[in-house]
Structures are given as structure tokens and as C-alpha cells.
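re: that chain from earlier
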Amino acid sequence: MQILVGRGINMLQVMGLTKRYRNVPAVGDVSFEVKSGEIAVLLGPNGAGKSTTIKSIAGLLRFDGRILINGLPNKTSEAKKVFGYVPESAAVYEYLTVNEHIEFIARAYRLDEGYREKADQLLKRFDLFDKTDKLGKDLSKGMQQKLSICCALIINPKMIMFDEPMMGLDPKAIKELKSIFTELRNEGCAVLISTHIIDSIEEVWDKVLIMNKGKVVLSRTRDELEEKAESLEDIFFRHTEGAPDL
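^ sequence. v structure.
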């Protein structure tokens, strides 16, 4: 049964996620949730299991355990309709223009005509509005990243996931993206950001999930950290120092 979106509802539920590569565990029994109207950050050093977790949530890997988006298995078409994903490396089509990327997503998700106004607003915010006729292959890596963000946002997701979203962005785009994080939270969207750069998300997160050696070793809300007068940087290094690169 599908869960109706509302603030405080678990829009993403990861339960007992386990993934092995040739009998080598990459992620072991990982469980967490992200509520609607919440910005959760997945932090961890290289090799901690973040990428495997992100790809499993996105439905790109086979795994053991359960992952639900809006109360539905993450690989179902109904779950994917409300799920946006911005990968670490922008996934653009070389021979589609910026405008054709937007139209492709709109048709794939069967968006109504209202998508065009939102798309134009996003393209303007990310300085792509005058580049709508440029092919994907002719865009810089930063512009490809901006286009990938726009494509994920025009579907009005109830749950959206960003993997190292600041990589390759210029300062203005980073400022816009941080504003968008806040707007998504205010609209009741669940947001999951995976990164290893603590400073990039310092002012926007509500809950932090720290991964080390394939497990979530700590889950804390901002209020819990402030109550104990702890900094995000301090608890990160306390729980990850000595983590191997896998």
C-alpha cells in the first residue's frame, strides 16, 4: 500500500542492506530512514560503502535486504515516479541538446505541461537557459552536472538523492543548490546527500549518517549534536579515523 506524502513520514527506508562483491562485503546490514521534510547526509571516507549504498537505493545493484521509497520497493515503477537521483558523474546523452534532455525526462515521467515553466526557472538559476541548443557532449563537466540536477528536479520528487553534488560546480551554482536543498525540505521532500566533504553541507543538514567499513556507525540529528555541544567534524573523525580504502 502506498504511503501518502506528509511531513515526518519515512519516505526512504533502508532495512538490512547487504552487498558483497566476490564474497567481499562492501556493505553489511545497513539500516536507516529519511523522513519527508528532512535533509539527511551520508558521510564517510573513501571505501566506507557510500557508493554501494547509493547505487543500491537507486536500483542499480542487486542486494540483500529491503529498500522502500514512499512505502514501495525501490525498483518498482511507482517508486521511481517519485524518486529523483543526481549521480556523482553526470549522466547526459552526448547527442541530445539541453532542451531535449528536459523533454525526454518530461515524456518518460509523463509530466503535464506545467513542467516547462519549472524547467525554465531551473535552467535560469543554473545559467543554462541560453544553452538549451547545446549538445550534451559540448557541455563542460560543470554544465553537465547542472543539467543532471535540473532533470532530477523537474519531476517534483518526493524523495531525491544527490551523490557528491557539489563536484565541478561553480560558486554561484553551489549557492543555488544549497538554496534548493532548503526549498525541497520546506516542500516536504526527503533529501539524501552523499559526500565526504563535510564543509559542503555544514549549514543544511538535519540528520547525519556516518559510514565506516560498510556500516552506519553513527546516526545523529543536528539537535542531538548541538545538545551535546559536539561538532560534525569531531564526530566524523572520531568514528572514521583509521578506515581503510577498499
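Strands lie at 10-21, 24-35, 39-43, 64-69, 72-73, 83-86, 159-163, 190-195, 207-212, 215-221.
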